[in-house]
Design brief:
The complex is a heterodimer of chains A (205) and B (736). Chain A has 205 residues and is α+β, with helices and mostly antiparallel strands. Chain A contains six helices and five strands. A five-stranded mixed sheet of chain A has the order 2-1-5-3-4, with helices on both faces. The chains are: A alpha+beta (205), B alpha+beta (736).
Amino acid sequence: MSTPEPGGVSRRAMLKGAGAAAFASVLGRGVQAQDGEEAPAQPKEEGLQSRGPEAVEVVFTLNGEETKLVVEPRVTLLDALRDRVGVTGTKRVCDRGACGACTVWLDGATVNACLLLAVDVAGAEVTTIEGLAGEAKLAPIQRAFVQCDAMQCGFCTSGMLMSCAALLRDVPRPTLEQTKHAVVGNLCRCGTYPHVFHAVQEAAQ
Amino acid sequence: MSNEQLRLGFEGFELKAEANVPDGAPRPWDLDSKLRVVGTDVPRLDGEDKVTGRARYSYDQRFPGMVYAGILGSPHARARVKALDTKAAEQLAGVLHLEPLGDELYYAGQPVVGVAAVSEEVLDDALAAIRVDYEVLPHVVDTDAAMAPNAPQAVPRRGGDGNVVQGRRDTSGDGDAKVAAAHAAADVIVEREYRTQVQTHSCLETHGTVCRWEGDQLTCYASTQATFAFQNTLAQALKLRPQNVTVITEHMGGGFGSKFGADAWDVFCARAAKATGRPCRLMLTRKAEHLIAGNRPDSIQRCTFSASKDGKLLGAEVHSWGTGGVAPSASIANPAVYAFEAQLSDQHHVLTNAGAARAFRAPAHPQGFFALEGMIDEVAKELGMDPLELRRKNDPHPVRQRQYEIGAEAIGWGRRKADGAGEGPLKRGLGVAAARWKHNGRPGCSVRCRIGKDGSVFVASGAQDIGTGTRTLLALMVAEELGLEPSAVEVRIGHTTDPYGHGSGGSVTAPSIGPVARQAAYEVKGQLLRAVAERLGVEAGALALEGGQLTGTDTPLPFAKACALLPVDAIEATGVGTRELFSMPRFAPEVAGVQFAEVEVDVETGLVRVVKVVAVQDCGLVADPLLARSQINGAVIQGVSYALFEQRHLDPKTGAMLNPNLLDYKIVGALDVPEIVAIPFSVANGISTTGMSSLGEPPAVPTAGAIGNAVANAIGARVRSLPITPDKVLAALGEV
């Protein structure tokens, strides 16, 4: 949860503010939303839609299945997945895009689910750790993670795997340097990186 | 009791010892034991759960109607709540419970109000709507400033004024006089000040719990490294009997010493669940995790070490000050390891307005050893002696003596040049440091093992897995004893309804529950063999379990077929960790380790890169080398992070933490990880019937010291302050 400090700005307020700033630049008006204030006035230009603050419907594909959610537009994809859909393999750690624990695929690209709003993924395809293996029991990289012990507490593992699997999909035989760069956004506090690198090499075989 | 002759030690250094083995216990494993699965690379049993997202952590628990709780923390380092206006928050739709949690505030982040709401978003709204009128009081967050005579009193203390609290004062022999005499007799005296920083645990899963009441029975899914301590402290706070609180921790996302008993926010979560009549989740925010959930204290270490010109270490005198925030807990492990003639350690805790320190992986050690090992190198430099040679001359531990040889060869110590000798701008250097820890196997745990008539084997321990692999370890012990594969053993851990296990602190878990798990399997095996022998009309003594079969009969029986001969549905035994099980002769009093580091320093930018670390680590019998390497790698990487990057920055003026996130609080990432050669070093030490010792903490001890020494070797100047950032490197070089 992004608890705001008195006088401070919560991450959600920041996102909201950033959204408002974007509107402002489009409209050429000095609209700035601040925490607790009303959302900016609905823009009148065609092609722009204002949604919320009340809950709206979002339809997207999650691990191959059509998923329908009714959420407030301020709800992040991460919180929507974990607390609404109940898919909890994706972890919340820093809640501001610094650690990669919430890495999922959005139309195949790795993204931080804590930096996206659930409404942003309407019509898109989202893949989480639960869908990584598809019909198989385990994807090769998952099997390699187990065999190489590429985990300790396991809290970074889902995000780490999503990054490694994307790498292997795009670069079937990555070098050590490529592997390191692929997980550069994934923090592991237990320090299990050497086994992660090893697992990627094993899965590439 | 029976006497068993054991062969202890390691290859090239063996000794025979007589062990008093308690009645009904198996012969302790030693160098003569032919082990089948113990000592082989076995992937962790819950690996598949972790790689598929199926492993459910506290943060992942969901129940119908669950509410979300959080806390409003103090924005001030020292303040008093004058007035609290929660009306607007309480009137928000979806806010279900709100209560004040404190009004005398001694550190930023200290809980002021707790709130429970129907969603995280409503919770955010509610916390933002609370208005607090604070009387802001004078604070002090800086260790040096807090020691000044006119500094504000950070927190009231009993039996004295001022922020400096005398800590441990250890002297050897005649104490101060003896150290002074040792210094007086020395040819070389080195006097230096070393400093280390505050490091936060930064567990990926923040502290917290999900609480659920059924009548007077509370079930608590806690992110803890001590299920029973959590049960006990929570029950106490709620005025319940421990039996009314069940703690469940099947998986937890890191603790590193910061997650033992229930905290104030956990108690609030339980109360909020009770008040709302709904399950309640409270997990700390990342910011709160940095502020109030523990840290490693900083240190100022004034050291005077002396030696004779032939390299005998004589006196070691250390005066230290450090802050554990509002907790007087800034001990250091310095001096240690080396056989000084006389030593004195005079330690002080400095109170400041910051969140309390908690145990952090090898408490007191990484900070103490950064200074200790730096001092050893500085003495060696004064003597004109190779620092490795000085260590070998003064280190009494037989295991470390061998480890120095192994490590020196693996890192290529022969390549080490004179300090600062490289051409630049990229200069390489090598450094070495030692590790120590106690053999921390402790009596008192129990483990239950059950064999079903269908051949299933089930093991239960209420202890938790902090990430080291408790399930796998239990399965290995039982599988070895029953002649099965570890995957054939089903394990349940982390339920306080199961047999008692210690909290995972001090690296006690494996050495404490290992022998007890083996004991449980040994006893239930005895029951099985007697029952089968009776059924088949043979002598039980002739039967054995090996390779998944019952042998000693005319034709070997598969294990499950043997179990089918049981006259009852299941048999079980509870292994008990008696004192006798842990009172055997010890090969060596301490766990030993050494680390060698190679660094590359850019003398133009001051940037340090750790190229390679060789870590040779004793942990008694190595039960699972694959998992042991994971722990050693992790300790080294945390050590690199501590040596180069991590630092809690508090603004002296406002008392606020300037980097309470994972972006500005710098932790090692993939690109900073050196090549690590992790060498688990197996020693048959006879400390228990399994001989496993502590592993989680010891390899976390020497890394920063080894890196500090390697940097000094690379650049020919010494940085005596952690983290070793570019500005300090350039300052040491006289460039800034």
